[in-house]
């Protein structure tokens, strides 16, 4: 009896950008959270309470080229919008959906969106490299700024829990304002910044 050998055709996986890694770590919601944190760190969006607004008036250093996911987020809040709605909108945006399809084609996700063995290896390699912010892997819980962390976490929780955390975030806002910070949420308080295509580090 002749033996039949099946050859598995594999496609070489190109370098992954930070939003590919975010998708591997937490799916579409993590992509949205990563975009929000990166844009805030670069001063391109302002988060106040439960709302987020694009800062077209920002006059800081020239920004890095924006990733399509970041453009999608900015397009959702030109004059301010609820943070929960913006995060949900980015998570469902065709740009984010395309990341998932691409990861499936690379053999890093299954068609049911679980991670393959190769996907888990790539995610762990990116984590071990240490060049991406912790929030890419761990989500809002790893955001270094306490009030921003509470605000984003509130936007991702059921209504009751979210409102409780939002009250905490507003209290932190008021405390910050009383120290003269004005109409800014303070940006990043240290660590990596997830800006543009680099997100604080190279590709993986």
From TrEMBL:
<feature type="region of interest" description="Disordered">
    <location>
        <begin position="175"/>
        <end position="204"/>
    </location>
</feature>
<protein>
    <submittedName>
        <fullName>TIGR04222 domain-containing membrane protein</fullName>
    </submittedName>
</protein>
<feature type="compositionally biased region" description="Gly residues">
    <location>
        <begin position="185"/>
        <end position="204"/>
    </location>
</feature>
<dbReference type="InterPro" id="IPR026467">
    <property type="entry name" value="Ser/Gly_Cys_C_dom"/>
</dbReference>
<feature type="compositionally biased region" description="Basic and acidic residues">
    <location>
        <begin position="175"/>
        <end position="184"/>
    </location>
</feature>
């Amino acid at each position: 009896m002749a033996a039949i050998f099946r050859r598995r055709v594999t496609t070489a996986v190109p370098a992954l950008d930070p939003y590919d890694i975010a998708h591997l770590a937490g799916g579409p919601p993590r992509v949205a959270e990563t975009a929000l944190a990166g844009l805030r760190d670069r001063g391109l969006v302002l988060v106040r309470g439960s709302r987020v607004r694009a800062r077209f008036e920002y006059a800081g250093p020239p920004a890095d080229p924006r990733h399509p996911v970041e453009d999608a987020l900015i397009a959702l809040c030109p004059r301010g919008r609820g943070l929960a709605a913006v995060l949900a909108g980015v998570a469902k945006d065709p740009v984010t959906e395309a990341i998932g399809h691409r990861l499936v084609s690379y053999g890093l996700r299954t068609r049911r969106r679980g991670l393959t063995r190769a996907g888990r290896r790539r995610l762990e390699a990116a984590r071990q490299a240490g060049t991406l912010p912790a929030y890419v892997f761990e989500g809002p819980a790893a955001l270094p700024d306490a009030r921003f962390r509470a605000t984003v976490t509130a936007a991702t929780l059921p209504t009751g829990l979210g409102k409780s955390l939002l009250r905490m975030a507003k209290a932190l806002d008021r405390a910050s304002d009383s120290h003269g910070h004005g109409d800014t949420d303070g940006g990043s308080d240290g660590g990596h910044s997830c800006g543009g295509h680099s997100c604080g580090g190279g590709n993986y």
